[in-house]
Write a structure and sequence with these properties.
Length: 305
């Protein structure tokens, strides 16, 4: 946690920071209901739609005794009258102890953290970063694999616009991963993240094929949704939206310990028959978000349990 104790990017967190947060999340999972924030107000400002991130943050705050204010639709705020993001943040910081913000513009969270008198938690900024999703992803990987070290992590689908995979790559730099980037050319991992891996000697393989043989060596199969809202050309979206669909039959040769993760929401990329397969872990992963976000809120406020 840096910049006014804000959480803007996962890149700022050391291995020790990450492990501390995961151990805090373990404690919250054992005991999620604690009135340790009864004098705190948490603001949730969502300029973009959300189900899990907003509701798990609000549940996290409520289970810790905090009060929650905020909005789920900027159309009901004075931003429609021309109020700037700066003025909105300055106003909300008069009322709340911490601001959780999702915004459609890349860099909006960093800007908010720079000007805000209270800490800002980035709940997703455009196609850039989603650090709290990454922490719950790391918690899910840690719980299911018993370690974060030396894992083969397969990232599948929209690697161009998927902010969760970008944040996950950065976080895993501390843990000696091997990545497989499985995407069609149109949605390939951006050069900047491949350079990021090369500069840190993180091995990665790029593939376009997606089948049972390709994924047989995976420890984690991280599926992603093709992000319709980021396309300027909807014809291109139509061309690639169903390019990879994971079916239960494709998991027959998977390692017994392998888990399928997905930040959700899913559209077509995981068939419903996978839900009953023991490798499926995406609903538990979303539940882990509650505990990870309890840890993040407390850490941002300087509270350790
Ligand atoms: N994973 C995730 O960010 O989900 P929501 O968009 O529903 O918050």
């Amino acid at each position: 946690m840096k910049e006014n104790n804000s959480l803007v990017t996962i890149a700022n967190l050391s291995r020790e920071d990450i492990m501390h947060l995961l151990h805090q999340a373990e404690k919250f999972e054992r005991e999620p209901n604690r009135t340790i924030l009864s004098d705190k107000v948490v603001a949730t400002l969502f300029f973009e739609p959300s189900t899990r991130t907003r509701l798990s943050f609000e549940t996290a705050a409520n289970r810790l005794g905090a009060r929650v204010i905020g909005f789920t639709d900027p159309k009901v705020t004075s931003s429609t009258k021309g109020e700037t993001l700066k003025d909105t943040i300055m106003m909300v910081s008069n009322y709340a102890d911490v601001i959780v913000m999702r915004h459609y513009l890349e860099g909006a969270a960093r800007y908010a953290a720079e000007i805000s008198p209270v800490p800002v938690i980035n709940a997703g900024d455009g196609a850039n970063q989603h650090p709290t999703q990454t922490l719950l992803d790391l918690y899910s990987i840690y719980k299911t694999q018993g370690t974060l070290d030396n894992l083969h992590i397969y990232l599948v689908g929209d690697l161009k616009y998927g902010r969760t995979v970008h944040s996950l790559i950065m976080a895993m730099r501390h843990f000696n991963p091997t990545f497989h980037f499985i995407a069609p050319k149109e949605l390939a991992m951006p050069e900047e993240y491949k350079i990021y891996c090369q500069n840190r000697n993180i091995p990665f393989v790029e593939e376009e094929e997606f089948n049972a043989d390709i994924i047989a060596n995976a420890d984690i199969l991280y599926m992603t949704r093709v992000q319709r809202e980021r396309f300027t050309d909807l014809m291109e979206y139509e061309r690639v939206k169903d390019v990879y669909i994971l079916k239960a039959s494709m998991l027959k040769d998977a390692k017994p310990t392998m888990k399928v993760l997905h930040p959700l929401p899913r559209v077509n990329e995981i068939a419903y028959d996978v839900d009953d397969d023991p490798h499926a872990y995406y609903f538990q992963q979303a539940r882990n978000g509650l505990y990870a976000r309890q840890a993040i809120i407390c850490n941002t406020l300087g509270i350790t349990v």
